[in-house]
Design a protein that fits this description.
Layout lengths: L5 E4 L4 E4 L3 E2 L1 H4 L8 H14 L3 E3 L8 H9 L9 E6 L1 E4 L2 E4 L3 H15 L4 E6 L8 H13 L3 E7 L3 H10 L4 E5 L11 H8 L2 E5 L6 H4 L2 H4 L15 H21 L3 H10 L5 E3 L6 H9 L7 H10 L12 H4 L18
Parallel strand pairs: 3-4, 4-5, 5-8, 8-9, 9-10, 10-11, 11-12
Antiparallel strand pairs: 1-2, 6-7
Protein name: NADP-dependent oxidoreductase domain-containing protein
GO molecular function: oxidoreductase activity
Keywords: NADP, Oxidoreductase
Length: 344
């Protein structure tokens, strides 16, 4: 198997594997946590294959995914990887709160460093934007953490174009993480061009549509009750019936090309440019091997156009998240002006 190549992520000096590994599903949200020895073996297999860009967050578990990564990074593995984690979402009593205040930013970073058992995080993202305070305030604290050597690079996740601009003016943003796949393309209008203009790398999460572009409606039939996808609008019966035609068309084209639909859908994301790093998550070594196989699939402009015609913006029914979370996505993540900030 060919080793995975490297790309520059953003213009601040971070270099990562051309494809990353999303670690969330190992511990949270997609059913019960998976057995720890199996997940450590998978992470080690990924690193040996050249996938060294590992993505986690303090909310995955919460906390258990970072602890898992901490264990997997022992024995010299830490030196081989680019480690990304996130802060900003707190889950308490079934309620979610988004925080970006300086004291919280610092406390969250210290806690992640302990759980990961590292002295520096390579890429530290604000997971969701705290719209109660100016983005400049949050980035100001992250900048201090860079100066102190606790983090190397700063990232944002699910931020609007204007928030990205304002953040970047305080301290260069290395990467913006966003949902980008054949069936989640709303970022192409404003957010992707803004990142490119500013020299910010793009990290595409859920590049396989949370598994839908790998297995279509079969995915939903086999999900356990405690899998968060069961409750997402796109996977509800009234929307799924409509959305399944997208998968069927991708599947037909994959058959013509002699590859799996997941490889084809992932190759489409890779073809968006060498400033884009998709981070498909998986808990199985065979699926991981499939995913890195996408790197060797070549798509012509005609094939790209054909794939895109299956999933034009209005072809997908249902939002990316349910209403409770919709408030935390980038559609309305602008923060108040800095002049409004009164330090507590």
């Amino acid at each position: 198997m060919a080793r995975v190549g490297r790309i520059k992520l953003g213009s601040q000096g971070l270099e990562v594997s051309a494809q990353g590994l999303g670690c969330m599903g190992m511990s949270a949200f997609y059913g019960a946590p998976k057995p720890e020895p199996d997940m450590i073996a998978l992470i080690h297999h990924a690193v040996q294959s050249g996938v060294t860009f590992l993505d986690t967050s303090d909310i995955y578990g919460p906390h258990t995914n970072e602890i898992l990564l901490g264990k997997a990074l022992k024995g010299g593995v830490r030196e081989k990887v680019e480690l990304a984690t996130k802060f900003g979402i707190i889950s308490a009593d079934g309620k979610r709160e988004i925080r970006g205040d300086p004291a919280y930013v610092r406390a969250a970073c210290e806690a992640s460093l302990k759980r990961l058992e590292v002295d520096c995080i390579d890429l530290y993202y604000q997971h969701r934007i705290d719209t109660r305070l100016p983005i400049e305030v949050t980035i100001g604290e992250l900048k201090k953490l860079v100066e102190e050597g606790k983090i190397k690079y700063i990232g944002l996740s699910e931020a609007s174009a204007s928030t990205i601009r304002r953040a970047h003016a305080v301290h260069p943003i290395t990467a913006v993480q966003l949902e980008w796949s054949l069936w989640a393309r709303d970022v192409e209008e404003e957010i992707v061009p803004t990142c490119r203009e500013l020299g910010i790398g793009i990290v595409a999460y859920s590049p396989l549509g949370r598994g839908f572009l790998s297995s279509g409606t079969k995915l939903i039939e086999n999900l356990p009750q405690d899998d968060s996808r069961k409750y997402m609008p796109r996977f509800q019966p009234e929307n799924l019936e409509h959305n399944k035609t997208i998968f069927e068309r991708v599947n037909e084209m994959a058959a013509r090309k002699g590859c799996t639909p997941s490889k084809l859908a992932l190759a489409w994301v890779h073809h968006q440019g060498n400033d884009v790093c998709p981070i498909p998550g998986t808990t199985k070594i065979e699926n991981f091997n499939q995913n890195i196989g996408a790197l060797s699939i070549k798509l012509t402009p005609e094939e790209m156009a054909e794939l895109e015609s299956y999933a034009v913006a209005d072809a997908v029914k249902g939002g990316r998240y349910g209403s409770e979370k919709a408030a935390n996505t980038y559609e309305n993540s602008d923060t108040p002006p800095l002049s409004s900030w009164k330090a507590a």
